[in-house]
Amino acid sequence: MEKFNVNNISKQNRQFELFGSNVNTSINFQNSNNLKIKGEILTEWRNRIYNHQYKISKDTHNKTFRQTSLPISTISNERKIDPFSLQPLSLNFWRTNQYIHNGPAMYFVIDSMENSKIILYIGETNSANKRWKGEHDCKNYLMNYKEALAHNKLSSHQDIRFFLDVPKEVKLRRKLEQQLIYLWLPPFNKETRDRWATTFINN
Q1: pLDDT band at residue 98, thresholds of 50, 70 and 90?
Q2: What top-level branch of life does the organism fall under (predicted)?
Q3: Could you tell me which of 64, 33, 196, 35 has the C-alpha nearest to residue 121?
């Protein structure tokens, strides 16, 4: 994994600097609610994530296709899940009449911009219809992310998708969650923020 030097940025009030750029794109949250990130930097950040995830999606599809004559168990668990093919739901699904399974699930927060999609966050839950309804760090990141997009007049749409065929045991679900995170490298998961020098978060 790539590592970025963020030691010179205060962890209390400032954000990670995108791509180790010489231009300081971090801000102090106490003084401003807007993320002063240039559109081209934001687009480049997003494209790098897209390029990685597109390769994973393409490779996973091809592997599944090649192994149709073999038992499905020969394909690793995290590669059996295609997040982009799951049903997209509103991030505020609990305020609508959309039915959400109330059991365990993996969930994916996905961002769509023009003709591309990226996974922003991957999580696991014991109750799909409740986990996203309450407090969640990712909601804060999404708010800041959408603010940065709006500031640069970049349109996008975020949704949440659930995969329900998961282990009931918490330990096994969390293992699958980690496998999925290290496969797709979504930028809002804590395990991958250094990889992408993810901003939009309070540190």
Answers
A1: low
A2: Bacteria
A3: 196
